[in-house]
Amino acid sequence: MNFELTKEQLQIQAVAREFAETKLLPGVIERDEASEFPIELFREFGKTGAYGLPYAEEFGGAGGSYMDYALAVEEVSKVDASFGIAFSVDTSLYGGSIMNSSASDEIKKKYLAPITYGEKIGSFGLTEHSAGSDAAGQTTVATKKGDKWVINGAKCFNTNGPLADFSIIYSLTDPALGTKGMCAFVVDKGTPGFTVGKIENKMGIRCAQVSELHLENVEVPEENMIAQPGEGFKLAMKALDGGRIGVAAQGLGIAKGAWEIARKYMMEREQFGKPIAKQQYLAFKMAELQAKIQQAELMVYRAAWMKDNGKPYSVPAAMAKMTATNCAMEVTTEAVQMLGGNGYMREYHVERMMRDAKITQIYEGTNEIQKLIVSGTLFR
Does position 135 have pLDDT exceeding 80, yes or no? Predict the structure, then answer.
């Protein structure tokens, strides 16, 4: 077992860390309060090729690995988890749907290459108000009309939805067939009948733009069907497996970021005549949290390694997502407590991190769904 990162991976970490600390950290509190996404910074970071890290150069990617991608998501999420999830959805859910699909190489290049360097932004439309964990319960339907498909329905909780130039839309061809007739399309912004609906006002990840997407008689050319009827559900689940590694990396970043803020605070804050880091109870608590963070790190990196090496990664991804996001919630909650009254104040960041951490336990499949995935393999 080799736990060392390569020189290239250390460089990716360094670039992402510097960007987070010098570009994302200034103004992150104000953006959170205003629910504003730093679109120009998102495009700037894209120029590094980060959004295409796990994809081949022939499709506009950087020719790297999923581990490279996870490391970059982790670093930006230490500072701004909203940025981290926009990055994750762009690369893993949107990009993964494109690259794992049966679409032609021409379509893959057309709809992936502009994403990889931040020129365009992608979103992923699977969830509906009637279909969350139960993806088969969706009601969006695509009907064949000559050489085109006509889509009617609505999606909700679309991260990047209001910003996206391209959106993956999963739909049924026949409600009676359920997932056996599920297909997928890539739909361009501005297509007649394709509109942004309600933009959500959220507890956490407030900078991330999350909305409904409405489709009313949206006509899409045949070549934009990236998953044929019956292939859509499998494609969505594969994209989600990759996305869970991204969210696990996001959770890991949140946990590490909050823990480091608490560590520095405890070394400076004095009570009873000494830094509170010298209070054994608090020091022991920090030791316990650090052990849990490192456990989560191993789970996340292992899942990324499994994917990169062509090994089954659905269960490792589920385990990593569950472990790292639960860790994020615990660490941020404890960090608020460690900082006492200051921890409850926005200027110290950890209260924002705690709010951000909560959603990581919910999206990309709730952690209860991750337990379902894992437990389903235990008794065969």
Answer: no
